[in-house]
Amino acid sequence: MSLPDFKTIVAIATPPGYGGIGIIRLSGRDSLPLARKLIRAGDSVAFTPQHTALFSLTNWQTGEIVDEALITYFKAPHSFTGEDVVELSCHGSPVVLAELLRLLTSAGADLAQPGEFSLRAFLNQRIDLAQAEAIKDLIHSQTTRQARVAARQLRGELSQQLRPVKDGLIEMIVHFESTVEFVEDDLDPLNLQRFIERLDGFIVTLSRLAESYRVGKLIRSGIKLALLGRPNVGKSSIFNALIGRDRAIVTALPGTTRDTLNESFSLNGIPVELLDTAGIRETEDIVERIGVERTKTAISEADFVIAVIEAGSSLDVEEKDLLEQFPVNLILVNKSDLGKTLSSDALSYLQSRSALLHVSALTGVGIEELKQFIYQQLITESSAGNESAIITNERHYQALEQALSTLRQARHDLAVGFTEEVALANLHEALRSLGVITGETLIADIINQIFSTFCIGK
To answer: Hey, what long-range contacts does 104-110 have (CB within 8 A, 24 or more apart)?
Structure first.
């Protein structure tokens, strides 16, 4: 998507389909004249900025009333895009919205491209690039935790944390540039140590942000969790217990699940795609064999694998081979309500392979402990607490890593006695990398790629 020419744009800003309300958004210098063109002749058309009024909207080509709408006017620069913005809150009929959109485009408005409203807000410096990306994250949130983190970043908290580092780098660059240009003597040792200490502080701050990406990636993208085991050990019952409803068919017959079944749920705000796989065993049933092959593929793609065995299992050779064939993060001993126990040899073997938990999918005993165990393996409470400091975007993480690399090199150069001029190149590169996150460093391809993934009307 190319940068806009700042003509007036228009789009439906609500999701497709029927609803109680549908919103059409205009942005640009002709927003008000275009809105006035829709208002029924004889109606007062005075608009007060940041106020809403009710009007009848007409088709000026036929004189017929199309709808009644609440019209809100946001005067530039006090709007989302920084331009004059008009929003028409109509009844949520696709037919009505399409007709109004047709009338506005026939009067001269351009249909907005995906993300063009947010792009204009960025270009007009109403938001920075990190905030713009947070808009998309907030819209696509699947859990309250995702929404909370995105909302914090939309308020500019990431940008605020980067600002002291960027300001400090600018101050250091200006000092070094002046020194190189006007002073022939080397840096005073005390000043040199002070600059090294400042660089150390920048490195600590950025390192904490970069380290948070391990958590942030989970919050944003979630994980795939697969249940592995032989037929009839209770994988489907565990599956239903974790998602909190009867999704998988459960019977006493081995081989009931013949294909991979998936369902999504939230684990303390972490999106989880849970996979219930076909029980693995040697079989002549061609359908079941296909299911076993799909199970192996699903397990290879999973981020976290739970092997389920039955309480009282003798752990025969086939079951041991299964545990050794795949990477297992947790062994779950199911049907603990039956009063059966594993032999000491079996228990010792299992504990040597992985962490072990006893549960009963039938009674629910141990299921909450299971959820907490999974969560604690994925994320630490200490890193989860400060959500304003969590990096969730791969692009931001890569930029931080690049900035850290160049800052460490600059520190090394100063510490071993290189001149300020040598360190300057890395300081400039670090500042440029941080600017990539918030958009001060404009790279057209990155900008276009980011905003083209937005929905139309945002």
So the answer is: 104/10, 104/24, 104/26, 104/34, 104/38, 105/10, 107/34, 107/37, 108/8, 108/30, 108/34, 109/7, 109/8, 109/9, 109/10, 109/26, 109/28, 109/30, 109/34, 110/7, 110/8, 110/9, 110/10
Residue 371 identity: K
Host domain of residue 434: 138-212+391-439
Q: Do 434 and 399 contact (CB within 8 A), yes or no?
A: yes
Question: Reduced to 3 DSSP states, what percent helix, strand and coil does the chain have, rounded to the nearest 5?
Answer: 50, 15, 35
- How far, in Å, CA of 57 to CA of 70, rounded? 10
Q: Kindly report the CATH number assigned to the domain that includes residue 320.
A: 3.40.50.300
Residue 40 CA: distances (Å) to CA of 35, 69, 185, 276: 11, 12, 77, 59
Q: What is the CATH number of the domain that holds 85?
A: 3.30.1360.120
Q: Which residue has the tokens 């005993």?
A: 365
Q: CB within 8 A of 330, min separation 6: which ones?
A: 304, 305, 306, 307, 354, 355, 356, 357, 373, 374, 377
Over the stretch 268-327, which tens digit does the pLDDT of each residue have? 888 888 888 765 555 555 555 556 666 677 777 788 889 888 887 778 777 788 788 888
Record the tokens describing residue 261, joined without a space.
């079944």
pTM score, whole prediction: 0.77
Spatial neighbors of 200 by CB under 8 A, at least 6 apart, are 411
Residue 446 in domain: no
